[in-house]
């Protein structure tokens, strides 16, 4: 199985690049942001609890996202591999993911970190907010909080995967196609 973690700050381009990798390597895309927005749209208890935090730029609770991922993995036991987008975002999530994959007899093949300067992140999110309709993309203070939370809670995962020799840094600046080629070259070498 080929299991990839697509990593990077909010606005780094994970969703955009995930599309190229899914197509090229025939992977199942698991985006916790998308899964949470589906729960919110369906007004489930999970969605309502998560929305309160997401609207302010904080993370949803580990237990909610881990249980969403667990059920998606169980639904797709025969998949050739997965691409995790926006997950894991905390060390607790990363440890849980390793455990879930181990139960399936597999593991993470590599973590691809899209590297983008801070001001560019804010610009990209603001421009996405003009068309996405996402409320968390339209307010600079919420965007700044998401980046702060990323730096505090999520960035340490680079060490988590580096310690396992699974960390690959990718330049996230340039054209969408150029970045996709960098990612595909790296994944092909795994
Ligand atoms: P972005 O990468 O631009 O922040 P996402 O769609 O991945 O966009 O996430 C949107 C929001 O959903 C996050 O700000 C966070 O509140 C919540 N979220 C997404 N994934 C997770 C996760 N793995 N753990 C906790 N909260 C999450």
Question: Which key phrases capture this entry?
Answer:
190 residues, alpha/beta, five-stranded parallel sheet, 9 helices, 5 strands, binds adenosine-5'-diphosphate
SS element count, helices: 9
How big is the Rg?
Answer: 16 Å
Percent range of helical residues: 55-70%
Distance between the termini: 12 Å
Bound small molecules, which ones? adenosine-5'-diphosphate
Q: What is the N-to-C succession of helices and strands? A: EHEHHHEHEHHHEH
What general form does the structure show?
globular
What is the spatial order of strands in the main beta sheet?
A: 2-3-1-4-5
The beta-strand count equals: 5
Main sheet characteristics? 5 strands, parallel
Structure in a nutshell:
With 190 residues, the chain is an alpha/beta fold. 57% of the residues lie in helices and 14% in strands. Strands 2-3-1-4-5 form a five-stranded parallel sheet.
What does this structure look like?
The protein has a five-stranded parallel beta sheet with strand order 2-3-1-4-5. It is built from nine helices and five strands. By secondary structure, the protein is an alpha/beta fold. Helix 2 (32-41) packs across helix 3 (45-54). It has helices spanning 14-25, 32-41, 45-54, 62-75, 91-103, 118-132, 140-154, 157-162, 176-188; strands spanning 2-7, 28-31, 81-85, 110-115, 167-171. It starts with a strand and ends with a helix. The chain binds adenosine-5'-diphosphate. Residues 10-11, 14, 32-33, 36, 53-54, 59-60, 65, 86-87, 89, 93, 136, 146 line the site of adenosine-5'-diphosphate. Adenosine-5'-diphosphate binds at residues 10-11, 14, 32-33, 36, 53-54, 59-60, 65, 86-87, 89, 93, 136, 146.
């Amino acid at each position: 199985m080929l299991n990839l973690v697509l990593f990077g700050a909010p606005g780094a381009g994970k969703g955009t690049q995930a599309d190229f990798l899914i197509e090229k390597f025939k992977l199942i895309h698991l985006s916790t942001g998308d899964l949470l927005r589906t729960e919110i749209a369906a007004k489930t208890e999970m969605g309502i609890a998560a929305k309160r935090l997401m609207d302010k730029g904080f993370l949803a609770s580990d237990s909610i996202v881990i249980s969403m991922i667990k059920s998606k993995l169980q639904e797709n036991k025969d998949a050739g591999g997965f691409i995790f987008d926006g997950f894991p975002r905390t060390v607790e999530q990363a440890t849980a993911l390793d455990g879930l994959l181990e139960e399936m007899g597999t593991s993470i093949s590599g973590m691809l970190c899209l590297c983008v300067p801070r001001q560019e992140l804010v610009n990209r999110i603001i421009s996405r907010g003009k068309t996405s309709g996402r409320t968390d993309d339209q307010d600079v203070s919420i965007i700044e909080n998401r980046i702060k939370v990323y730096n505090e809670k999520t960035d340490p995962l680079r060490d988590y995967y580096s310690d396992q020799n699974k960390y690959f840094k990718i330049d996230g600046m340039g054209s969408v196609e150029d970045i996709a080629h960098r990612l595909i070259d790296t994944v092909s070498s795994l």
